[in-house]
Amino acid sequence: MQINVSQLLQSPVGATRDCPVSELVDVADNGKVRLVKGEVELLRTPSSILVKGVLNTDIELMCSRCLSSFISPLEVTIEEEYLPTVDVISGSPLPPPEEPGSFTIDEHHVLDLTEAIRQYTTLSVPMKPICQKSCAGLCQYCGQNLNQGPCGCPSAEIDPRWSALTKYITPGK
After folding, report:
1. pTM score of the predicted model
2. What is the DSSP track for 38-102?
3. What are the tens digits of pLDDT across the range 66-95?
């Protein structure tokens, strides 16, 4: 998603601009594009453009319990600073950012949100995604997906030393 910010770079510090976002982006960097919707606010700072906003998308994940693929909605909060590479008035090049990996505004005064959206989406993915709260997972013996029904494996005998804990087991789990 590219936004021309030449007018905003010429505006006084504190000037803002709201930009709706509705773009297809490869958020997982896997060749599959997803719709990203929301709104970002661009804020002129003394030396840059600060981008803040909340975006909504979805992503294909693998359940950490049953290993099935599923589509999960994601809300991504983005806040990133973009530094210009060229002075908007004179057209002369500016010194490169001191911090490596900083987001920049290109020589045509275009700010590209695509990489920031991809990075913030990656950070928003849960560490252990679960397809549904009631996911039963896989049988520890045969690997059957227990969401599709019981597997027929004999139930494991409980070590008598742990039998006092059986009162905390939820029936059917």
Report:
1. 0.78
2. EEEEEEE-SSSEEEEEEEEEEEEEE-TTT--EEEEEEEEEEEEEEEESB-TTT-PBPPPPSSTT-
3. 999 999 999 999 999 999 988 888 888 888
